[in-house]
Amino acid sequence: MGYETLCLSLYDQRDLVRAISERLIEMYRQVVALLLQFERVKAIWGTDDMGFRSGTLISPDDLREFVLPGHKLLAQMCHDAGRLYLLHSCGNLSRIMRDLVEDVRIDAKHSFEDTIEDVRDAKKKWGEHIALLGGIDMDFLCRSDEAAIRARVRDTLDVCLPGGGYLLGTGNSVANYIPLDHYLAMMDEGWKYQPWL
What we know:
Elements: H1 3-12, H2 14-35, E1 43-47, E2 51-52, E3 55-56, H3 60-66, H4 68-80, E4 84-88, H5 97-104, E5 108-110, H6 119-126, E6 131-133, H7 138-143, H8 146-160, E7 166-167, H9 180-192
Parallel strand pairs: 1-4, 4-5, 5-6, 6-7
Antiparallel strand pairs: 2-3
Helix pairs in contact: 2-4, 4-5, 8-9
């Protein structure tokens, strides 16, 4: 329905928003049920950009009413099948992170932007509860030189690897505007990382 129409409908057509939400949840339920029939599928990657730099796109209460129940259902389906439920969501989700961890029960979160929350800080808050994926900020990766990228990768691994539950990668989906040599420097430094030596 588009963002503006959604915002207006949340005010004066909540029954329509509920109907759309329920239809989408049922569609996703059917797709995930099909995927989970395949033994080779070890995790489901849920995606739903729920925020922007300073907050959520709609109120936390509206997310709890219309969006998070779908993620909770899919996570439960995955867990019942012995699989993982990973979430990609951009934006500042600080007001619903406890919901995602304790109620939805995501196993991992992806998408970190330094101006919102550095993955190293997220590790301190949530690292005992969920895995963290990525975190090398896209803007940093584009603008920094190789030495800075390598130092950032080492520091991120120093902070995020202890205790497990971290996977090195970019802060968001790998975009074609990232200089290839910067991306390869990140990957190479991660490959070479051996703190025990």
